[in-house]
Every structure is written in C-alpha cells, then in structure tokens.
Amino acid sequence: MTALSIITPDQEPRPWATSRPDRPAALSLCLLGGYTCRDRGREVDLPLGAQQLMAFLALHGPSTRSAVAGSLWPEVTEVRALANLRTRVWRIRKCLPRALRTHGQIVALGAETWVDSQALDALAASLLHHTLTDTAALLDGLGLLRAGDLLPGWDDEWVTLERERLRQLRLQALESSVQVLLRAQEPDVALDLALQAVKAEPLRESAYAALIRVHLAEGNVAEARRQFGVCSALLQRELGVAPSDRLTALDVW
Questions:
Q1: Which of these, 33, 59, 68, 109, could form a disulfide with 113 (CB 3.0-4.6 Å)?
Q2: 115: three-class secondary structure by DSSP
Q3: pLDDT of residue 252
C-alpha cells in the first residue's frame, strides 16, 4: 500500500512559503532585490535574455508570443522579435526542461514554479484583507517583507510599473504586519518591520505612525515622542507641511 503524505493544519501550505511541507519547489524564481533562479535549491546561472523572459512571465502570467516578443524587443520588427523569443525558449528549456510551458501561441512558466513577487502579493492580500491572524504564518513571510525592490537596475517599462506597485504594496503590508505582531505580543519583530517601512519611505506618515505605535506598546513614550518629532521636522523641511490629524491623534504626550 502506498503511504499518503498527510499535511496537518499547522503545516498547511502557504503561497508565500518557499516550498510545501511535503515537497520542495521544483523551481524558485526570486525577483525582489535582484534576480536569482534555483532548480531544487541549486542556483542556475542564466544569460540576461533568458532572465528577462522568465521575469516577464513571472510578472505578467501566461502571455501570447506576440505580447512577450513585443514587450521584450520593442525596437525590432515583429518577425525578428518572435525569432528572438524562440531562441530564448529553446535555451531555457535546454537548461531547465520544466521551466516553461507552451500551448499554441501561449507561453507560461512551469506549473511548479515558485515566484517571490507572487508570494508577496499573496501575503500582502492576506494582511490587507485581515484574513491572516496566525503569527507563525506571518513569520514565514518575513523574508518577503524585508526583501528589496523588484529587479533593481532593470529599466524596462514592464518592470518599472510593476516595481512601483509592489513597492507600495510592500509598504502597506509592512504597516499591517506591525499591528498583527503587536496583538501577538511580538514587539521586537514589529519594531524591525516598522523601521523597514520608515527606511523604505522616510516621508510616509503611516510608516512613522506604525513605528510610534510599537514604542507606545512597549511603554517607550520618550522614544515615541522622539520619532514624532523626527517625522514632524522631516515633513516641514521636505514638504512644508505639518503632521496630519491622524498622526497627531496618537497619544504621545
């Protein structure tokens, strides 16, 4: 009799985890903070053209050949762009046979590919929709919240638009995670994530508000007041505005 792999509730797969408890991810693609591709844990060195194709499919999902070719090679004719795409697909499959799927005119990543930007989307959605209440589940995703921007140094339009979207999403997720961690009596981790939010966007009032709440929760009123002063001075110096009512409503005095 073949034994069944049983996943207990506390082991239930989470879309932002790097692998399932019952099997590792066949292929993992990390785009946050830089490009890294791993095949069952082994890092794979791909040429830039192959990296671009896999990153595009990771960010945009299954796409027509013409859409992919036109986005990756907008400066050449459609015939040449499609030829470039065929070459890239061949090279990737030669190195990673399961990395891509094709069906007619559709190209997509392999079904078992884990992508960190997609995982960040899933984690942020759980936080922002208030469906994530399990601290252990949140701790699984700390690496995603601490990761850098999407593909830094890549200036293609299909990257820059998504980079800004994910940047804003990450900031919102960082601030929401602070509240979850404070309720779970995890002030040290909450403080780290609040500082990450402030570092990522020093002019963001809501990031400072999250940081001030952590200090107040720990009883560090003096530090909360200091951060309020830092934020107030920064807003006045850089933008010529005073803190909003939402920030001044925090009980720091």
A1: 109
A2: strand
A3: 79
